[in-house]
Design a protein that fits this description.
This protein has two helices and two strands. A two-stranded antiparallel sheet has the order 1-2. It is of the alpha+beta class and about 60 residues long. Helix content is about 30%, strand content about 10%. The protein starts with 13 loop residues before the first helix and ends in an 11-residue tail after the last strand. The protein has helices spanning about 15-20, 25-35, and strands spanning about 45, 50-55.
Length: about 60
Amino acid sequence: MFKFFSTAPVIKSDTVVKLERMGKTMQLLQAIEAERKNVFSNTGSSANGEVTVERVGSYGNKKGR
């Protein structure tokens, strides 16, 4: 089935699997939610700051196009 607006990866990266094994699933989800809520930034961090995510393919302030 084709999905138009799917933003979640179909395959988990090695980093995501590693974080899940370390018990950091909640922090990972918090960081993803924070990234999606902030329209002015392409990064998000968990509540305690342990995990930070950046949107794949994004251009931040210090990156060129």
